[in-house]
């Protein structure tokens, strides 16, 4: 499963859980339920980078409601007049993220040959 697919399925599952908590079942929620395939997973031990992505980055991104909604807008699961604006909002959020001080990145500057 690709990292992007997993991220999208995590967003789908988070949206659906929120709708379930509120008891909402309308055409939009049904469309989100049908979006994608498979379960959102956190694969184990693939490599240091994927462990960081799945275990540290995805949970932080899923805490941002607007990020989740924009991912679902880009997928066509939520109504959106202009999916490119949703994509731009995602890029803006990612570009301006404050990196978590506790994150231990799987690659050090010494390993990168510039």
Characterise the protein shown here.
There is one protein chain. By secondary structure, the chain is mainly α. The model has no long low-confidence stretch (mean pLDDT 81). It has five helices and no strands.
Number of H/I helices:
5
Tell the overall outline: globular
Tell me what portion of residues adopts beta-strand conformation: under 5%
Low-confidence parts lasting 5 or more residues at pLDDT below 50? Answer: none
Mean pLDDT: 81
Cα Rg: 16 Å
The structure class reads: mainly alpha
* Proportion in helices: 55-70%
What's the story with the biggest beta sheet?
none
**How many angstroms separate the termini?**
31 Å
Order of helices and strands: HHHHH
> Number of DSSP strands?
0
Short description:
This protein has helices spanning 3-22, 27-34, 48-62, 65-75, 83-95.
Key attributes of the depicted protein:
114 residues, mainly alpha
